[in-house]
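Narrative summary of target 7.
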Amino acid sequence: MAEARSPIPPRPPTLRSGPPTATDDFAHGFAIGDTLIDTAADRGYTCVDSANDAAVWVDVSGHGPRHQNGGDDEVNVGGLSGELADPQPPKTHAPSHTDGSDDVADLVGDSGAGGTHGLVPAPASGDAAADKVLRADGSWDIPAYMNILARKGSPGTIAKGRPVYISGFNIGANVTEVEEAKADSATTMAAAGLAAEPITNSANSLVRVWGRLAGIDTSAFSVGDEVFVSAAVAGDLQNTRPTGATSRIQKVAEVLRSHATLGEVTVYGAGRTNAAPNIAQDNIFKGDANGIPQPVAFAHAADHQNGGADEVATATAAANVIPKTGGAGKLDVGFMPDAVVGGVNYQGTWNAATNTPALASGVGTKGHYYVVSTPGSTNLDGITDWKANDWAIYNGTAWRRSTTPIR
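Modeled conformation, tokenized:
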């Protein structure tokens, strides 16, 4: 008789108060062959199908109190012969369980066909096995999402598709606690993911931290919209960046289908805020002693026009002041550096006969000059023979005449 192939050793039984349900499935960590003991009813169950939301468990606790001398649940083999009745030596396993050797099922080419219960199927050659996981039905597949188990930290229900943040840990249930995320406070952010099913505080449920999530209301959005955790309503999503000085910015998903009940998104921004936070008006970010940016108020006056604070009301030069433009919208000369003021600056024509406009010896602005329109003998710093087209130019100390103007 051919040597029997050996199944994978079962895992230790799960102990809890209450029988298993259809949701005690592969997504919640159960596989075919697992056992569960209902400690309240003193009954045992074995999983025969771990399909998501459709798990099948068989009650195996209905055995007789003993199994000796033909008691209940025992087969009387009297009169039988052969291997069933004869004493049998222990069956040994092959030394290897890979590549189709003894005690392993080689299901090459299984591409979705399903495997044999209790046996490890081998992925098809060239079937990208390194990137695949073994499904409950025995087939290999590329994972389309990732979940974590969680419960709500307080009474109530979190609807499917709502963003949640980690609020604590339930020691008794040995599971993470979550609540609906809200972007206006650091205490309710960042979102760990979206609820993949309704979440209460009485049972473990799934939170989608990465991948596709279907069957939610996305009717408020368009395909391709990138959605953020809302700062206005806990558990809401919005397709615009939240406003407000304290808001955290977390783009958590992208819309794949817009529909009131069959909407789909792909979750990709879970676990952290992913943009610079908002900041109050007139604040700036300033690095602290640890190099971490902190919002600080920008210290300046509220008004810098028409002689307001932090502004110089006249053209008097001074250190550490804000210069003021003149009536023509130009910077007053008193605020210009000497190198700039040293250049000539045309002021108009001058009547040397009537001294119009009035000029005085030793008084003027360096670089200012006038072109003589009418000859005359007005005395400017000792010069009295002004001819037409001469320049009267002030050098910072006295007026001088240029008889060869620059053309």
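The helical segments are 338-341.
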